[in-house]
Request: fold
Amino acid sequence: MANDTIGQPLRAAVNDGRVPGVVALAANRNGTFYQGAFGRRSLSEDAGMTMDTMFRIASMTKAVTGVAAMQCVERGLLSLDQPAGEIVPDLAEPQVLDGFDTNGEPILRPARRKITLRSLLTHTAGFVYPWWNASFNRYVEATGIPTIMSGKLAALNVPLGFDPGERWEYGINIDWAGCMVEKVSGQDLDSYMRANIFAPLGMHDSGFVPNAEQFSRSVQAHARKPDGSLEPVPRTPPAKAEFYAGGGGLSSTGPDYLTFLRMLLHGGTLNGAQVLKPETVSLMLRNHIGNLLVNKLPTSQPAVSNDAEFFPGMAKKWGLTWLINTDDVPGRRSAGSVAWAGLFNTYYWLDPKQQVTGVIMTQILPFADPTVLHLLDEFETAVYRTVKEKARNG
Reply:
């Protein structure tokens, strides 16, 4: 399935040292038409990047949790606008961080509105991340509460950054949506996803706890230093977390994740396995934040993330777990496409209009790495150029 036009920018990025390795795939309604793996899994090892290389996909987990939640909506177990506290009592009386007193102690007050599943899936419930919210970062430092990356349950029990419905801001909302799925299904999130999403689709390399063989295929994370060079981050087998993080805990491979995207591209069914109804997929692809806008994420922890914003200057909306671009991107995705990413610089998009989807995976910190974002642009442009050539040639 080699295609020099699509693979050329990927190969070049590895050859000139911009990234240690990269896996990328693209598909349309007819199936996968490109897949490529270039470079190495680690700068400190010889193992080459392969299609079965395991990645920590971080926030690309959110779309999977969203599908799980919408399955529960289809089955009548959850409702998008029911108060979430009726399902998960910890969400019944949320508190809002309202600043700090003269001693630096956090000031909390009751939230003015209820949290719902819809507000969780759209990041309008009020939960935020410390990496892009300076006030909440100060709260974490003042209280010593663990972050969501710790895998500790205490990381969920934090105040909101604003009142539900007030604005869009990225946060741990979909981790809570995962808790709702667990509550109504009677299964932990890993078991639920395996039974209802991964097994039906044949996604055998996706899950929250990679086994020893899968870990042996995992890619090492690298940190981008200020001079642009890359340094391997020490790699240790994943410790068992206190909960399965629906907002960012999955590991997967490029082919597995593309299978998930292809299911969505086909309206919820792939190879005879129906994961969602077509009308549910259509609902998830719509704008669910009304007149609110998806804003730039200004970093408050530069080692974790750069400032992050897709398509500066364009109005962006949010569906049920993903970003929506409201304008066509010349030579690339159509208006109304959905997309998101993972903290370690993994990215996907799904274009319902042109029926194209793609994924590109690296394992680099901090997030929104300009080098990888440029590579995403090059990859996506090459994909659409190939699609147009195929259409011209019949």
Notes: The chain is about 30% helix and 15% strand. Residues 226 and 303 are 10 Å apart (CA to CA). Residues 4-392 form a domain with the Beta-lactamase fold (CATH 3.40.710.10).
